[in-house]
Amino acid sequence: FFCLFITVSDEPDTLYKRLSILVKAHDKAVLDSYEFFAVLAAKELGISIKVHEPPRKIERLTLLKSVHIFKKHRVQYEMRTLYRCLEVKRLTGCTANVYLEYIQRNLPEGVAMEVTKTQLQPLPEHIREPIWEKEVKDKEESKA
Amino acid sequence: KTNPADPRGSGGSARACSPPCRRCRFSPVSYEEAHAPHYIAHRKGWLSAHTGNLDGEAHAAERTVEDVFLRKFMLGTFPGCLADHVVLKRRANQLDICALVLRQLPAHKFYFLVGYSETLLSHFYKCPVRLHLQTVPAKVVYKYL
After folding, report:
1. What is the pLDDT of residue B54?
2. B58: buried, middle or exposed (CB in 10 Å: 19+, 13-18, 0-12)?
3. Which among A24, A107, A111 is the nearest to B55, CB-wise?
């Protein structure tokens, strides 16, 4: 959505109830520094942000040490994934696009991000009023 | 920093004691090679940074194969010049190759090799590849084993 010009349109902007950004990495120091950067960027843009740390996941493998036989001698490997969750509440679409673009362009190497957006939409017109009230109105009109 | 136990210098002989005692040992080893794999994330960093091995992410095998090829390629393109292991960084589409290089070749040859490898690898992997070299007078030694 990189645009050099400010566009003005009549359509109402999309509204987001919640923007949940989950950042995953192997290194805690990298995550800490990225969180500091993201929080600073949010404060500059005037977005209120909350950060929490979901528990880490460790995937362990036990493999045979030798190419042939020696079943009793094994080697264990593990892959650790550390998480950081940035929660932003009540955003407009433009702000969300700008913030996410900035954050994503500056993602460090070896770090992955998952974004979950929860959008607010107005209730569709055909379900605004209960149907039985409409049926009662129709009956009264047909009688009269 | 020269080792007084270096048999090539005027210091002493490494064969005087067998097995050589701590002060007579001569086998230079860099920081990366001196630490065992269980020190990764404690005293060591990672040589290859990509998201393939994270929980819920895919294509780890493709990245590993690319890594193996790139390391062999760097070893061959800069013969006898690499001081330490090559560091590979992947950010979105780009691939950054960072290497410590000895000053074996004249500068214009280095520039040619950098341009050649960048163009070749970009066309091969269909993504922007950048090479970052840092020259070093000699291999950086952490300790002698």
Report:
1. 92
2. exposed
3. A24
